[in-house]
Amino acid sequence: MNKFLVFAAILLLPYYSLAQKKSDALLSEIDQTIENNSFYTQKKEREISQLKSLLKNTHTPISEYEVTQKLYNRYNSYQSDSALVYARKNLKIAEKLNETEKLNQAKLNLITIMGTLGMYKEGIDALNSLKTVSIANLKGSFFSVSRMIYGQMADNASSKQEKEKYQLLSKKYRDSCVNFYPVNSISYIIAKADWYLDIKKQDEALDLLLPLFPKIHQNDPNRAIIAYVISQAYKQKKNRDKEKKWLGISALSDLQLSKKEYISLRSLAFLLYEDGDIDRAYTYIKRSMDDAVLCNARLRTYEISKMLPIISESYQQQNETNRFQLVIFLISASFLVLILLALLLLFFKQMKKLAAAKKELSLANDKLSELNSELNIFNEKLNLSNNTLSEANFLKEIYIGRYMDQSSDYLGKLDEYQRKLNVLATTGKINDLVNTVKSKEYIENELKEFYTNFDKTFLQLFPNFINDFNTLLLPSEAILPKEGEQLNTELRIFALIRLGIKDSAKIAVFLRYSISTIYNYRSQLKNKSAGPRDEFEERVMQIGKTEE
Q: Is the separation of the CB atoms in 61 and 67 below 8 Å?
């Protein structure tokens, strides 16, 4: 049985390692986001500044209502005092518009931010005033806000009886949310999942939330809420790794949206504290406290204040332990340094004796190095000569074989051509004989075949010649044969140069051009060189060297 357990543990080890790497990557991303806090804060402030500028240039009540509501949404969970200011401005504008739905929405916004600021009495009074008002399609939002504010009051209750009373009211309003939110809306799914968790049906909650999460945009505030509810489902299932993972996803979303009022990072800090990751736990809980204070989220500040001293004390103890270990390390290092100094003194005399011998050896080595350098230079020259000779022999063998075949072929063609002329002469077809003799077609065809054979043979020897040649030219001056050609005139000239035929007169005879034409071609291509003009033909001679 024990052997089986060990075997199973070995099999599961790779999966555990992979999960650990993913968890570490998520925590590292959270660390980086906290470090880059100013980037996300500046982004948030730019959005708010743009809305404030838009509000200054807005002159109609309906536009003012829409902009102040957006400003409230931006400040909500960011700066509660400013959110309260714009919630009240939004309510005043809604009263002027005298539209029931807008008025009720503005009141719900005001009640929400009152709950965040701990203004529970004012929030409850406003809720009670709303009960007598027809709120139509805002009933789901009404019950959601009611549930939220009673939940906050339960968390902040001073006695067990009050806590239980407010918890019952919060659950009652939560159940009403499910009945009045549009089915399959995000708010409905979150409320339904929360209801499932309340009755310990974690799998049903996960079946609702897990398919929904990938569809939620990165900038949607609901992303953090859904991830947090998923983490609570895994918490009920006693799956600590997945609870921590989804708390991390929720916290990352909160931080990237520059929220200051949240719960996920605080909860994650406590899990890390229990896991012994004290440094991260302290960083996360301190950041949570700083954000809660900045937002003026009183309930969150109160909740964090209960945990902060515990984690802070462990953090200080760890620092003390680290400092003690550092002192021990420094003492040990100092002792080792003293021993090292003593050894250095002992070796110093030996080093003096060795210095003289090393000096003599160095002089001998210098002379040997000079001889080696000279020998290397000689060997390089010899290798270059051998390579050049080998290449020349190789080219000669290829071309001698090819042109022996071609000469034999030409003799056959000349014999056939002679017989053709003899037939024309003996049959008295003098005009045909004269026309045939005067015609250049035969010569042109033979030249064409000759150049084709030359191109084919050359490209067999240097298959990458065209590409390598174009790399020596400016990118805009590349030379490419036309369709059906293997080499054109320019490429053929430098193919001959690559074969060692550098005399323009010989190239002119070979290609049936004037010497001045060949000279012009060579000059033009040198001017198009990507490197020094004087080195162009020498670089052409290096084409194919590595391949051979």
A: no
